[in-house]
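Consortium newsletter contribution from the modelling node. Members have asked for a concrete example of what our holo predictions look like. Here is one, prepared for the S-adenosylmethionine complex that several groups have been discussing at recent meetings.
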Amino acid sequence: MSDEGAGDGPQDRGDRGGQRRPGVRGGAGRGPGRHGAGRPPAAGRRADPADGDGHRGASGRPRSSGRPGADGGPGAASGGPRSSGGSGASGGPGHARRPGAEGGRGGAAGRGSGAPRRGPSSTDPRRPDRGADRAAPPARPDGSSRTGSTGGAGSEGTGAGAGAPAPRSGPARQRWSTAKPSQRSRGGGPAREVALDVLTAVREDDAYANLVLPGLLRRARLDARDAALATELAYGTLRGRGLYDAVLATCSGRPLAQVDPPLLDALRLGVHQLLATRVPAHAAVSQTVGLVRTRIGAGPGGFANAVLRRVAERDRDAWLAEVAPEEGGPDGGDTTERLAVAHSHPAWVVRALREALVAHGRDVGELEALLRADNAAPEVVLAARPGLATPDELVAQARDVVLRSTPGAWSPVAVRLDEGDPGALPAVREGRARVQDEGSQLAALALAAAPLEGRDERWLDLAAGPGGKAALLAAVGAGRGASLVAVEVSEHRARLVEQAVAAVAPGGTAVEVRTADGREVGDDEPGAYDRVLVDAPCTGLGALRRRPEARWRRQPSDLAGLGPLQRGLLDSALAAVRVGGVVAYVTCSPHPAETLAVVGDAVRRRCGTVELLDAPAALDAAAGSPVPGTASGGPDATGPEGTRGRTAQLWPHAHGTDAMFVALLRRVS
Ligand SMILES: C[S@@+](CC[C@H](N)C(=O)[O-])C[C@H]1O[C@@H](n2cnc3c(N)ncnc32)[C@H](O)[C@@H]1O
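And here is the predicted structure:
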């Protein structure tokens, strides 16, 4: 579930009707009827609440997912925020971070309350202040407390207090609004309405935020700024829910379970504005209360007013000290619980990520940076498909539509967009380039770069939907005279694969898409392939930054359900590859149960017939220069025997990519 190009991008959106493209053979396979691939759900709706990958966790039996891809389409793929002005292609405009405009909440003032090679740095200089947002985005990626005072809230508030000093902690008096009542928006304004609609769809319909948002933005006809605000509010509220609920529990005077869910959504939206944006406090409260009044009722509006005023009495740091006190202090609590609240992750995910860092041989002290990276909006990254587009072409096209772009940090075919709608680039619209996380790009390119002797003509992608890596592999393979068979169990997602690879095979037969169960290919076609990709369905714990709601949906029990499916697919791949051929086992989760354990088992069970290749070296080869810190498991690591140092793990906080895991296995007999 690693590829964000997937989802709702212009080239692979499910609403294209899934028509066949010339040159793409849609093999019958053992079709969906047999495997119950299921109906294609409405865009944005989840097929299975327990599983975003289009399979049923417990049974391992796949099912069609409403989420075309692990990640959305361009922009949406990114978790939204960095792209802006979005069309459907972008999954909505991004929130525009304005480093230079951090600070004051305006009206709150006075009340006294209140790596690597070109990799990203923690100070993230990539985003200039465009000065055009009214999105009032988070001051820092993790939404930590604001300093400085240059920013008001643009048109968002009344202007009162803009440029005022940053809010300080502690209770004090508050003037709620300087606007005349007639000037205030009664319903919260269109951006908040859209944001609330997203929260409602996520809660009631199990929708994916990145898929429902574009349609809601279009329907509401928001201009770019309001669209950016709506996107930031929706995504930020979903990500920050853990902390916001802890604050609300303190302020609401009743257990949150007793608060009506629609009202709770609106309260979270209000808290997000108060604690993580530069929206002035008075505007955050009055607009959110207006929204509650018009959407839910006058009584709930009064309740929201009382609760949000209490929230507004302190700033984020003060609330953190209250609800997530540092250990060692008088109220210091358990580290996991503190990190869970402070960085808004379920405690089991915090534990899982800590375990993952240790298992892959990294310093456990990196945990907080990793959690913070999960809360930062990822950049939109494009992959220029070899033979169809070049990074230089993408940079030139971005310049033509006044988008800032930079070369990728790692992948030789990557271009990073600072903001904007990737669908504005002709190459993206034509399917010659695609939004795809750099980690996903490197994983596919590493398989293509793995050393191989003898025949190298038949490539296989065993779990291909929605087709991001298949599209890249197909393009690379076409340049080397290799054909690709792409297998996907979900009918709907198989159609997305066809769309994804269409540009690579306009009239040829280099790519064949089959709707089938990948676990059966090994038995049906033993030893038939030279290179095989298993991008296994997984928990997606390495891509939380792209899927704001995912962390609240996943359960620890998902791990147990996914294990047999992951092992079954890897077994099938190892049977389908010829002796001497290479299998890449890839996940967008660093969890040891989905990565090192699966690979370690496979190597152990096949005693001597399968060997691990040097995946970090293959990543370096794919990148064209060293990608530091990918070797997964040093001498002290706890990874299973036989995997140490041979597998590769990328990290959001270290590489600026999703946390992709890559193992390369060669069948030796
Ligand atoms: C992680 S996603 C693959 C992402 C894809 N490689 C990309 O880059 O766009 C895993 C895919 O495996 C599919 N899948 C699940 N079980 C499967 C099975 N038994 N056989 C084939 N595909 C399966 C899911 O429907 C999902 O589309």
